[in-house]
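Cross-check.
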Amino acid sequence: MDESKKKHRILMVSDFFYPNFGGVENHIYYLSQCLLKLGHKVVVMTHAYGNRSGVRYMTAGLKVYYIPWKPFLMQNTLPTFCGTLPIIRTILIREKISLVHGHQAFSTLCHEALMHARTMGYKVVFTDHSLYGFADVGSVHMNKVLQFTLADINQTICVSHTSKENTVLRSGLPPEKVFVIPNAVDTAVFKPAPERLSCNEIIIVVISRLVYRKGADLLVEVIPEVRFIVGGDGPKRVRLEEMREKHSLQDRVEMLGVVPHSQVRSSLSSPTDNKVGTSVEAFCIAILEAASCGLLTVSTRVGGVPEVLPDDMIVLAEPVPSDMVKAIRKAIHILPNIQPQEMHLRPSEDIEEVPDFVLPHHQDVSPESCDAQ
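Predicted model, tokenized:
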């Protein structure tokens, strides 16, 4: 059989999956749906979330194994090295898996699954979704683990060229084994609002996980200068609320809390004029979603963010509060010349050039979808 037409049985592995919300979780789900549409068999393995344990089914018959391991830090399971081997082996044999695809460098379950799969002779692929450093203790430790896990891997995927360079340096992989496949957005879902606010009324929306890596600390310094709607949750939410109370900004800063991915579009497509991102990331999917909604984006010139959009669709700033404020003011000055419908069509035109298997096929999903059928 032609290798390009061969139907595979793929096991997606990560500590990060629904009902937890985030970019990695959405990526795994939409990629799985796309592969199912192409006729491949896809199974997801993650750890238990609360009382969600065992086998569950999602849209299009996506089978999910919530193995009975409890997270101990930031949704990561405790490293066991060999403790997960029996259950991983059982799933590989029961589901007749031909390829194992691990996601996210900080996922303990991902590393253990890749290690055990290679030991058993399976083909393995790894996707790195984030950027990590070289100096702090956590990054040094993780880079050593990455070098060990990826020493015998078949292929590696990164979401930007900056991410590829970062992964190659951290893991010691030969560059020819690392491929760049940017994230995509379903432009049929993320559409501009039917009406815009007047130029005299500016609302800036932030949809992000409120953690250090997403630039929440920088956001705390910028918010007192302008009006914001903030969607998301995380350990840095307390700092944002403290700042709001300190400066008496309750009427200018609206905290939405956790925003499920199915509701992100409505949050972005409400009559707003701007979207701000402060992430230090390999690829910020929220920026692409905002552009698809016809919003001008302001973000920091760090990581893979400058690769996401052309210069006329985003205003970039250095990751310091004063420069972010200047960038926001520049964006407000540009806003009258922005045509949301034209901006919406541009990502569509660019995405159409990407192979079908890269594009996420939209399916409405909620945490309840994970329940057993």
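The radius of gyration is 21 Å. Residues 3-184+355-370 form a domain with the Rossmann fold fold (CATH 3.40.50.2000). Passed to J.P. for a second look.
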